Amino acid sequence: MSSGDHVGARAEPASCAGGQQGGGIRLKQKRRTLKNRGYAQSCRFKRVQQRHVLESEKNQLLQQVDHLKQEISRLVRERDAYKEKYEKLVSSGFRENGSSSDNPSSPEFFM
């Protein structure tokens, strides 16, 4: 007889002695395992749903960033156009210090 046979022979009577209890324990373990599988599946499903929500939110934010970049670009062009207009006025003899605030061509008029 090998040592492996000896251990198997010893383990068998112990499980036979508690036949009813062993079945009850196995049944509880099986129920617990099935519940755990259900919880794991539910968790995986929720994780996938959350991932989709986050990806959708990310895409919306990326679109918003693109829109804001375009808006910044437009405002920079507008600012540069006003700056150029101002510089032309200054170079053509427009005097900033001598202008009155009630003059519509004066920048102070709009402030």
Task: Please render the helix and strand layout as text.
Blueprint: H1 3-17, H2 19-91
Would you mind describing this structure in some detail?
It is a single chain. By secondary structure, the chain is mainly alpha-helical. It has helices at 3-17, 19-91. Residues 11-15 have low confidence and may be disordered. One of its GO terms (molecular function) is DNA-binding transcription factor activity, RNA polymerase II-specific. Keywords: DNA-binding, Nucleus, Transcription, Transcription regulation. It comes from Camelus dromedarius (Dromedary). Residues 1-35, 90-111 are annotated as: Disordered. Residues 97-111 have a biased composition (Polar residues).
